[in-house]
Amino acid sequence: MAMLITPQTARFIAEHRLDNVRDLALKAKREDGLDLPFALDQIAGWQTARTKLPQWAEQSGIIYPPHLSMEQCSSQFTAQYKADLARRLTSAANGAANSAANSAAGKAANGCLVDLTGGFGVDCSYMAREFAQTVYIERQEHLCVLAEHNMQALGLRHVRIVCGDAVTMLADDQITRIAPSQPALIFIDPARRDEHGGRTYAIEDCTPDVLALKDRLLELAPHVMIKLSPMLDWRKTVADFRGAVSEVHIVSTGNECKELLLVLERRHSRRTSDNDAPVRVYCVNDNDIVDFAYDPANTSSDRALGFAPLPQPIRYLYEPNASLMKAGCFALLEERYGITQIGPNSHLLVSAADQPISGFPGRAFAVEAMGGMGKKEVKTLLQGAAKANIAVRNFPLTVAQLRKKLKLGDGGDVYLFATTLAGNKHVLIRCTRCAA
């Protein structure tokens, strides 16, 4: 499988890769030997990769897929996170001696990775660096062609490309025949679009259905890593896998939740026949990582509201990052950081400490004033402010409605949080951002 690019197409891509793709589509001169649709895909793909996959963008010879595949592929951050996780899982399985050997022998002790849903190959390319052997499986032939070309361009010559359907190959026991050795880790990223291109989120609506494949996957490998939609309820997802999940990773970058990663462990699934095995949850937002133990048998423990009296005076307000919001572990934040939830479902926490918390995993604000929604209170609270950054949490108005009501422009140094305290009292909190 080879990618053939004419000299005219290669020259066009090199000359115009910084240009606006839409303008090029309308104005570019057609010439013999120029595959314009392909060239436009390459220019658009490289422009996306500059921010999403900078290491790929710096590498000459990479061929990019059409827009949808670029939209769906992992970012460099999330792909590298999976590679680090894969290294930890397989190194731990190999033991301390083999972990030392990994450092000395280029990760050779980590054995074989099997990626059952290779796609564009970004995740596979990063994880493959941690393994001596890698098998990439993808049912779409054009993506296999791209992957084979790009793995070579990236110097990953130990990656074997296989065009086939993962479910069929699992049923026919083909995986054990094509893998160079027993898989140490299986990775699977079910397609989250239906036959009409619409988005799907429920596990059973994705392709393949990893719930139906769980037992077979764990027969083949001691660890299985599954990439799922961040829209899923992670607690329900853990329950659906009935004790097989050992770790949950809620991964965000730039404070935007990107994916939910599950780690299934063969030994973990055998500890209990019920859904009560302990699970480690990792809330990741760039360099911030907060982890905690989740007990599926006590599902209310990590959601419990303390309803403690609010500290007085309220000096600082904290907004947890996107992964912590998704995890819903607000009682944990109260305990770890000595802060208090301002109200039910507010997702905001406050303290009366003299100094802000150093390294809080989210945004911190110094509180300047707090008041109700009465005209006089609002007028006093907004004195001197012509514009503000507004956020609403458990509040009856949207940001746009509140901005219109308060007659404030957008931006500036003032931050306004509108929320509801215990007792259904609506309040505005005026803040300034604390330095990171």
Automatic annotation (TrEMBL):
Which Gene3D superfamilies does the record associate with it?
A: Methyltransferase PG1098, N-terminal domain, Vaccinia Virus protein VP39
UniProt KW Cytoplasm keyword: no
Q: In what residue span(s) does the PG-1098 ferredoxin-like domain sit?
A: 316-361
Q: Which GO terms describe its biological process?
A: 7-methylguanosine cap hypermethylation
Domain named THUMP-like: residues:
362-433
List GO molecular-function terms, semicolon-separated.
Answer: methyltransferase activity
Q: Which UniProt keywords apply?
A: Methyltransferase, Transferase
> Know the name of this protein?
DNA methyltransferase
